[in-house]
Amino acid sequence: MAVMTRPLLNRRLAEFGTTIFAEMSALAARTGSINLGQGFPDTDGPEEIREAAVRALRDGRGNQYPPGPGVPELRSAIADHQRQRYGLAFDPDTEVLVTAGATEAIAAALLALVEPGDEVIALEPYYDSYAACVAMAGGTRVPVTLRPHEGGYVLDLDELRAAVTDRTRLILLNTPHNPTGTVLTRAELTAVAELAIERDLLVVTDEVYEHLVFDGTEHLPIASLPGMRERTVTIGSAGKTFSFTGWKVGWITASPGLTAAVRSAKQFLTYVSSGPFQYAIAEALRLPAAYFDGLRADLEAKRDLLSDGLAQVGFAVYRPAGTYFVTTDIRPLGAEDGFAFCRSLPERAGVVAIPNAVFYDDREAGAPFVRFAFCKKTEVLEEAVSRLKRLA
């Protein structure tokens, strides 16, 4: 029998095995632990939006292939959302594209816009799919590291500028930022925009946590800054805002040329998805401001509950300005290896977390940091804090 000598997996993906989220979620199930690792809520979103999906199913809307760019109702709702929230005017017919969640939007954007050999700058630590999508596009990722400073994380603009070379194609932003909870400031985004214009770079910006910002923090889309609308692909998603992560409804907004480019790649990924759910999300985006304010207030209270509890246990806590994750430093607990810490935590305390090192190219830089999700019921977070006190 002939023996295959060539590896089965494409070498571009050889470094990417099973995600840490799958590993830790399986560990949570096996040990009966509270899963504060993967970022999904443990309750559904608004009942009226769930019923809107049921109504669409029963009415036969979206049960067959929806239009390739997305159903018109949703594209119009997305355009209205961008205009009302940020003063950004997009044509729903030529400048909005619905995707299978933000993950497909990221993949399609990078596959469309990156040539083999192009460099893509990403803010490290970064969501794990970024690295895989850059690799699949044949690009080279260039991390610029957000560094801990005074209880938060900051972007070194000099380091960002130094990372740009003649091979740089685009900057991949994420704000509000997962996993650190950083929300880039107007001054930081202005500097990024000026650099992009000066060096003729594209920007792909993941803004799925746009509504989850705390303490009066401002979320500012970089596309709204001078000169940036024509060179920016903005990515949004319904999952985080409306707590229906399984529906996988995301989108991009961009100029006609960029939208057409991303659609060219997207059509050969899923083509279309989430038909009935698109109609429901169109209604969700038109919910009154009270919904968004209530969601933010609820998560801010949960952030404080978990952050305070983790600090009491002995973690050094980086209280996030946005998202629904809190990053901690485990060194005050006498540990330095986040992987070992997270793999032992279910047995020691009945709680699952994620080692931040998986979000770094430089694993040593992320080694002592661990991420917890607080998008859970209050009583679940209280029980998790009670269990974690065993560590003290």
Key features of this structure:
alpha/beta; 392 residues; 16% strand; 4-stranded antiparallel β-sheet; 7-stranded mixed β-sheet; single chain
Briefly say what this structure is.
With 392 residues, the chain is α/β, with parallel strands linked by helices.
Folded structure, characterized:
With 392 residues, the chain is of the alpha/beta class. The chain is globular and about 55 Å long. It has helices at 20-31, 47-59, 72-86, 101-113, 128-136, 157-163, 186-198, 239-242, 256-266, 275-284, 289-313, 338-349, 363-366, 378-388; strands at residues 34-35, 96-99, 119-124, 140-145, 147-149, 152-154, 168-174, 202-206, 232-237, 250-253, 316-318, 325-329, 351-352, 354-355, 369-373. The strands form four sheets. Strands 2-10-9-8-7-3-4 form a seven-stranded mixed β-sheet, with helices on both faces. It has a four-stranded antiparallel β-sheet with strand order 11-12-15-14. A two-stranded parallel sheet has the order 1-13. The protein is built from 14 helices and 15 strands.
